[in-house]
Design brief:
The chain is built from no helices and 11 strands. Helices cover 0% and strands 52% of the residues. The protein has 114 residues and is an all-beta fold.
Length: 114
């Protein structure tokens, strides 16, 4: 069993920044890749960003240039750095890890509103 614990969500104004964290219960190098997804009210969960085991990154078009993924292998943690936040970024953000299974965190709420 794998546990993923997200933190760092909150309420911010448009244009501000947040950093989300996802701590895994085992080494993040044991996963093929780790991802961030988000789910907006009334919509399906969507891909936001990913970091592979080898350290390559991928981003959804809607966040490319504003969001960045990083990781601290020694802390079994990945981060989602979110800059220039927009109201459309309001969602529950989920951490996801994949080996032979998919593992999900409980999510953390991000609200962008003036």
């Amino acid at each position: 069993q794998v546990q993923l614990v997200e933190s760092g969500g909150g309420r911010v104004q448009p244009g501000e920044s947040l950093r989300l964290s996802c701590v895994a219960s085992r080494s993040i190098l044991t996963f093929f890749a780790m991802h961030w997804y988000r789910q907006q009210p009334g919509k399906q969960r969507e891909f936001v960003a990913a970091v592979s085991k080898g350290g390559s990154f991928d981003y959804a078009d809607s966040v490319r240039g504003r969001f960045g993924v990083s990781r601290d292998i020694s802390k079994d943690t990945i981060y989602l750095h979110m800059d220039n936040l927009k109201p459309d970024d309001t969602a529950i953000y989920y951490c996801n890890a994949r080996d032979d299974f998919q593992w999900w965190g409980q999510g953390t709420q991000v609200t962008v509103s003036s």
